[in-house]
Amino acid sequence: MALHKLTVVSHEIEFQLPSNSPITDIEWEAGGKNVIPLGCRVGACGACLIKVKVGFDALNPRNDDEEAFIELLGYSGEEYRLACQCLIRGELAIEVIG
What we know:
The chain has 2 helices and 5 strands; from the N terminus they run ββαβαββ. The protein has helices spanning 26-29, 64-72; strands at residues 3-8, 13-18, 49-54, 80-82, 92-96.
């Protein structure tokens, strides 16, 4: 199984995650440090808002509901995602906004 590097720029830490893993799985590896704030885990609270810095194509595409909710939060642009909705598929660097 392929592993992909996830860099959390805002915390200056890196993780290795298996392909198609939710990026929120880093919380298991971070020892409870709450690197990405989590609330509902279903894309309805906005606590896990991130900005993709590198590797936008390394994530599954946003769906219409995620896009609409991010805009409701006041952000526009494809680089904004809800971490709980993201599956890693390649090397990625993110900044935690939420």
